[in-house]
Amino acid sequence: MPKPTTIFNKTHYPFVVLFFFRCRRRGFFFCFCFFFSLSSFYSFCYFFLFFNHFFYLGGMNH
Length: 62
Fold this sequence. Notes:
With about 60 residues, this protein is an all-alpha fold.
C-alpha cells in the first residue's frame, strides 16, 4: 500500500498548482487560507486513519 503523501502528490499536485495560479488573480490571502485549511483537513484525516489502524491492531498493548 503506497503512502498517502505520494498519492496526494501524484494526483493533486497539478490541480493544486493550477488552482494556485488561478487564485492569485482573485486574492493571495484567500488562496492561502483555502490551501492551509485543505492541508490541515488532509493531515487530520490521515492522522485519524492511522490512529484507528494502530488502535484496532492493538499496537498499544505491545
